[in-house]
Specification:
It is an enzyme of class 1 (oxidoreductase). Belongs to the HIBADH-related family. This is NAD(P)-dependent oxidoreductase. Keywords: Oxidoreductase. GO terms for molecular function: oxidoreductase activity. By secondary structure, this protein is α/β, with parallel strands linked by helices. The protein has 2 domains: 155 residues, Rossmann fold (3-Layer(aba) Sandwich); 119 residues, N-(1-d-carboxylethyl)-l-norvaline Dehydrogenase, domain 2. The chain is 51% helix and 12% strand. The chain is built from 13 helices and 8 strands. The protein has an 8-stranded mixed β-sheet, with helices on both faces. α11 packs antiparallel against α12 and α12 crosses α13. The protein is elongated, with a radius of gyration of 24 Å. The structure holds ligand FVH. Ligand FVH binds next to α1 and α4.
Length: 294
């Protein structure tokens, strides 16, 4: 069954929180959707919405030209694909499981040996966002899949193709998550400071949200400095940051706040100054991260 070119049948393997949201989005857009999950009863709700429940991985993969996989990790992806046997030949496989660029390359190499088109992907959304344009999905690998199945992929959210190198989607996914964890880490540290004075975290958001928005406006300038390799600054040198950081760490110790999220940043700034970059701006830290301390 090849359906029609606009609405081909689609298989979704993995019905955890994310896989279920993906299958639900396809059903909502009218796709004939076959599903498989290790724990079979997770398919019940989708079956009630019209999904076809496959009894085996091979049966699920045979049902559709387009197969979406979203499971715990790449180890599970490999185990599942092993169970598929020859049914994978000629299929388009889109793997939305979180992993590393190296794992994406390994899976793409396996796919190429099997005669399978392979598109890797990264989901920049939580399950509740799937199906809305706010959900961003990054793709890399087979452009043939991205072009042929664009409308099906857009059922999940905004779709962005990053290029034929399959590692690019996980690379960008993990880089964006790094930026997110940095922001959350900074916010949690700030809130710990505020709470030490028995103040409300929520009240503090009226200051911290616009502050972070104003600071994020400087990211394109920092990025330009990194791309040009020109880190001299008239704004805020590593040296001045080094001096200010001591007050910051001292204040945290006085307040009884752990500095464990902040000392790595202080150590990086100190290394930059020690290596002779005291007059450079904070963009220099990117170069230091790319040359880890021996
Ligand atoms: N949930 C989220 O917010 C994030 C958003 C960004 C993307 N991630 C990634 O999506 C992958 C799946 O995440 P999930 O939220 O669906 O995770 P779970 O609800 O824990 O479901 C895990 C599924 O994996 C199946 N599974 C686990 N181990 C095995 C195995 N050995 N053999 C077969 N399947 C396995 C599990 O099956 P079951 O436990 O229900 O039988 C679920 O289908 C993930 O890469 C996130 O990083 C989500």
């Amino acid at each position: 069954n090849t359906g029609n070119i606009k609405h081909p049948p689609v298989t979704v393997i993995g019905l955890g929180m994310m896989g279920s949201a993906l299958a639900h989005a396809l059903l909502k857009q009218g796709y004939q959707t076959t599903v498989w999950n290790r724990t079979a009863d997770k398919a019940d709700k989708l079956a009630a919405q019209g999904a076809v429940v496959a009894g085996t991985v091979a049966e699920a993969i045979s049902a559709s030209p387009l197969v979406i996989i979203c499971v715990l990790d790449y180890r599970v992806v490999s185990e599942i694909l092993e169970q598929a046997g020859d049914t994978v030949h000629g299929r388009a496989i889109v793997n939305l499981t979180n992993g590393t660029p190296a794992q994406a390359h390994q899976t793409a190499a396996w796919a190429s040996e099997q005669g399978v088109e392979y598109l890797d992907g990264g989901i920049m959304a939580v399950p509740q966002m799937i199906g809305s344009p706010e959900a961003l999905l990054l793709y890399s690998g087979s452009q043939k899949i991205f072009d042929a199945y664009g409308p099906a992929l857009e059922s999940f959210g905004s779709a962005r193709y990053l290029g034929p190198n399959p590692g690019l989607a996980p690379l960008h996914d993990l880089a964006l998550l790094s930026a997110m964890y940095g922001m959350f880490g900074g916010f949690f540290h700030a809130v710990a400071m505020i709470r030490s004075a028995q103040l409300q975290a929520e009240t503090f958001t009226s200051l911290v949200v616009p502050w972070l928005q104003a600071m994020s406006a400087s990211l394109p300038h920092l990025a330009q400095a990194v791309d040009a390799g020109e880190h001299q600054t008239k704004v805020s040198s590593l040296h001045i940051n080094q001096t200010g950081f001591v007050h910051f760490i001292d204040a945290c110790r006085d307040l009884g706040i752990s500095t464990e999220l902040m000392t790595p940043i202080q150590e990086l700034i100190n290394r930059g100054v020690a290596e002779g970059y005291g007059t450079d701006g904070l963009s220099r830290l990117v170069e230091l991260l790319r040359k880890p301390e021996l």
